[in-house]
From TrEMBL:
Protein name, per record: SDR family oxidoreductase
Organism encoding this protein: Xanthocytophaga agilis
Keywords recorded for this protein, A-Z: NADP, Oxidoreductase
Family matches, as InterPro entries: NAD(P)-bd_dom_sf, Sc_DH/Rdtase_CS, SDR_fam
Pfam family, one: adh_short
Catalytic EC class: oxidoreductase
Length: 235
């Protein structure tokens, strides 16, 4: 697509991959809205990126409806959803908290579904649109302690495949990105021990570059799924 005609919503856009993607898209002429729960951080990210801030929590249905309606009203149209809002929770099965598992599902899976559902209503009415779901290599392979997070990312991959089958006839490209470990605030936010920064491991800029490149392809084609690994992480 021509990114100068892109009217984009990035969920979880106030930091990490979402913020970097907003920066790159704005620099290429796209109109970009970012949403997030923390209003202060969101407005700081908006100033940094040039994106339009909309406070809201994707796990809350009414918030998502309001966010999508605001994008359409502010931009006069809407044609790209980047479903990026997510966080991690890691625990061995014997210690897994049902409450925390359900909270994770509410954001990572249900929130992504609601954002997709509300967005696709407009996309179908225009017979055009793009959805980029940000998953993880955790959506391809499980690992010890990953039950909750891995479950959400496998679910997102499955939803992506369903949406792709439903909406290709409406000229809606549904794409999936699977980053491996990215050095953002994801680790600290999930409660895991933060490791020293490594110049050989992935940064948000590589994932943002992938998302932008996928969107830039001519609309007659699309990359269904892209997995991004560090070349030589030397961990």
């Amino acid at each position: 697509m021509n990114l100068q005609q892109a009217k984009v919503l990035i969920t979880g856009g106030s930091s990490g991959i979402g913020l970097e993607t907003a920066k790159q898209l704005v620099s290429l002429g796209a109109q970009v809205a970012i949403c997030g729960r923390n209003d202060t951080r969101l407005h700081e990210a908006a100033k940094e990126s040039g994106a339009f801030p909309i406070q809201g929590d994707v796990s809350k249905e009414e918030d998502v409806k309001r966010i999508v309606e605001t994008v359409i009203r502010e931009f006069g149209d809407y044609n790209v959803l980047i479903n990026n809002a997510a966080y991690g929770y890691f625990s061995k099965l014997a210690d897994l908290s049902t409450e925390k598992f359900q909270e994770l599902l509410a954001t990572n899976v249900v929130g992504a579904m609601i954002a997709g559902r509300e967005s696709v209503k407009h996309f179908v009415s225009k017979n055009y649109g793009n959805i980029v779901n940000i998953s993880s290599t955790a959506g391809l392979n499980g690992f010890a302690g990953g039950t909750a997070y891995v479950a959400t990312k496998f679910a997102l991959k499955g939803m992506t495949e369903c949406w792709r089958q439903e909406f290709r006839k409406n000229n809606i490209r549904v794409m999936l990105v699977n980053p491996s470990e990215v050095q953002t605030n994801f680790v600290s936010n999930s409660g895991m021990e933060v490791r020293p920064h490594s110049p050989s491991k992935l940064e948000a800029i590589e994932i943002a570059h992938t998302i932008v490149s996928m969107l830039q392809m001519n609309d007659r084609g699309f990359v269904t799924e892209a997995t991004v690994w560090a070349t030589n992480p030397q961990s």
